[in-house]
């Protein structure tokens, strides 16, 4: 079981959350090339180590937030403070 | 404007041993339920107050802050209307009567926390979930709001879920409490 530290609800089972993956800024659909759009939709960095990712507390406070997770160990760190959606250090 | 139709719970409770044993499970869906959404800093948010995750009885109604920007108010229709009638809804704030869209069950008994722990991953120990606490969580895989509101020091939990999941959740709770006699 992965305990995800929600900034509002505290540590909660990951099954109470929705995983949002790595945050990427959305390119402008009016000006983006097909390559840029494909990269945004399908390609992920998939780094080994600490990454920033998005979570949604779907069963609890229903807020989106970011935190850092180590992809090898599963450790989680730097959840945002309540009211701050940013979180993470990147 | 015509009166809304009388509430009719879709949950069939007859013959399901809901009241048998040391834990009782009741369908309190007919209780009037109102949701208030209000952004930080609005007059409505200030008036309703409470810390996120807390609930308290105010006269004839129970007020619970179930989300950082959402409150629920329970009681008779007159009491809820009276409580919300004077609310200043300026800014980003609104009230919705959710009586017909949400069902509410109440599970009461000394072992109610153990029964709940079978179907929900929340820590139901007294320090983490005392009377007057509320939390959003999945119960038997159904997204619910849970409010602990003890009756004469006997643990009691109100569980709210979407109407369409009502019968399934009721049966799951009957099943969860069965082993505790």
Structure, described:
- The complex is a heterodimer of chains A (90) and B (181).
- By secondary structure, chain A is mainly beta.
- Chain A has one domain: Folate-binding superfamily (Folate-binding fold, 2-Layer Sandwich).
- In chain A, 10% of the residues lie in helices and 31% in strands.
- Chain A has one helix and six strands.
- Chain A has a four-stranded antiparallel beta sheet, with no helix packed on it.
- The longest helix of chain A has 9 residues, at 34-42.
- Chain A is globular and about 40 Å long.
- Chain A starts with a strand and ends in a 13-residue tail after the last strand.
- Chain B has helices spanning 43-48, 77-85, 112-117, 166-177; strands at 24-27, 32-38, 55-58, 61-67, 70-75, 93-97, 102-108, 134-139, 142-148, 156-162.
- Chain B folds into two domains: 24-30 and 101-180, Probable tRNA modification gtpase trme, domain 1 (Gyrase A, domain 2), CATH 3.30.1360; 32-97, Alpha-Beta Plaits.
- Chain B has a five-stranded antiparallel beta sheet with strand order 1-7-10-9-8.
- The termini of chain B are far apart.
- By secondary structure, chain B is an alpha+beta fold.
- The A-B interface holds A 8-9, 12-13, 15-16, 58-63, 82-83 and B 40, 52-53, 67-68, 121, 135-138, 143.
Low-confidence stretches of chain A: none
Work out the count of structural domains of chain B. Answer: 2
Summarize the main sheet of chain B: 5 strands, antiparallel
Secondary-structure element string of chain B: EEHEEEHEEHEEEH
Main structural class of chain A: mainly beta
Beta-strand percent range of chain A: 25-35%
Any idea what the shape of chain B is? globular
Oligomer classification: heterodimer
Compact description:
With 90 residues, chain A is mainly β. Chain A has one helix at 34-42, and strands at residues 3-6, 10-13, 18-21, 50-56, 64-70, 76-77.
Per-chain topology:
The complex is a heterodimer of chains A (90) and B (181).
Chain A: E1 3-6, E2 10-13, E3 18-21, H1 34-42, E4 50-56, E5 64-70, E6 76-77
Antiparallel strand pairs in A: 1-2, 3-4, 4-5, 5-6
Chain B: E1 24-27, E2 32-38, H1 43-48, E3 55-58, E4 61-67, E5 70-75, H2 77-85, E6 93-97, E7 102-108, H3 112-117, E8 134-139, E9 142-148, E10 156-162, H4 166-177
Antiparallel strand pairs in B: 1-7, 2-5, 2-6, 3-4, 4-5, 7-10, 8-9, 9-10
């Amino acid at each position: 079981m992965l305990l995800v530290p929600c900034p509002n609800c505290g540590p909660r089972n990951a099954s109470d959350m929705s995983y949002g993956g790595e945050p990427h800024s959305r390119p402008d659909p009016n000006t983006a090339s097909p390559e840029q759009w494909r990269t945004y939709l399908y390609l992920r960095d998939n780094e080994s180590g600490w990454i920033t990712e998005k979570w949604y507390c779907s069963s609890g406070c229903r807020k989106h937030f970011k935190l850092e997770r180590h992809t090898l160990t599963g450790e989680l760190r730097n959840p945002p403070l309540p009211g701050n959606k940013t979180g993470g250090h990147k | 404007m015509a009166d809304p139709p009388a509430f009719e719970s879709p949950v069939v409770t007859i013959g399901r041993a809901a009241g048998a044993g040391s834990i009782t499970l009741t369908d309190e869906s007919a209780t009037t339920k109102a949701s208030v959404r209000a952004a930080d800093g609005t007059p409505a948010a200030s008036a309703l107050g409470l810390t996120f995750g807390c609930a308290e009885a105010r006269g004839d109604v129970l007020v619970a802050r179930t989300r950082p920007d959402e409150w629920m108010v329970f009681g008779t229709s007159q009491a809820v209307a009276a409580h919300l009638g004077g609310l200043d809804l300026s800014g980003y704030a609104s009230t919705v009567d959710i009586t017909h869209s949400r069902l509410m069950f109440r599970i009461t008994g000394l072992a109610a926390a153990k029964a709940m722990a079978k179907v929900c991953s929340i820590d139901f120990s007294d320090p983490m979930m005392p009377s007057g606490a509320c939390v959003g969580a999945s119960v038997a895989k159904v997204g619910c709001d849970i409010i602990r509101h003890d009756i004469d020091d006997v643990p009691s939990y109100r569980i709210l879920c979407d109407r369409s999941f009502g019968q399934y959740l009721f049966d799951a709770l009957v099943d969860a409490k069965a082993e505790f006699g």
